[in-house]
Specification:
Elements (H helix, E strand, L loop, with lengths): L1 H18 L8 E9 L4 E10 L2 E13 L2 E7 L5 H7 L7 E3 L4 H4 L8
Parallel strand pairs: 4-5
Antiparallel strand pairs: 1-2, 2-3, 3-4
């Protein structure tokens, strides 16, 4: 279990660092990455200004619960679950947490 946890942490961190290299096309927006390895939360944050509007947004958020990677937020055009699969994570270890459980049952991914 500990090996799997550290392996999944590394996969998520690498994925987020890869995506954090891309800044939003509009505005003066900074991209930050947060890793809470004790509580198992991994996020990308956008902060800054879009014209005269303050932006504080979390476009990507993962957590690890019960040996599964939960995708809690994805407000990008990227299929982050497929990115995880491409990095070797089995679909049965990925939960699309932003969908209700009845919808998760219809996917190829874990229910939770």
């Amino acid at each position: 279990m500990e090996l799997e946890l550290s392996h999944y942490q590394t996969i998520i961190q690498d994925l987020l660092l890869e995506h954090a290299k891309t800044r939003p096309a509009y505005g003066d927006i900074e991209v930050d990455v947060s890793f809470d390895t004790e509580r198992h939360h991994y996020q990308i944050w956008h902060t800054g200004w879009l014209q005269e509007r303050w932006v504080h947004h979390c476009p990507m958020h993962f957590t690890i619960r019960n040996n599964k990677i939960w995708l809690l937020a994805n407000s990008t055009e990227h299929d982050l679950a497929q990115d995880l699969v491409d990095k070797g994570v089995p679909k049965q270890d990925i939960v699309l947490g932003f969908h209700p459980s009845y919808m998760r049952e219809l996917s190829d991914y874990a229910v939770g």
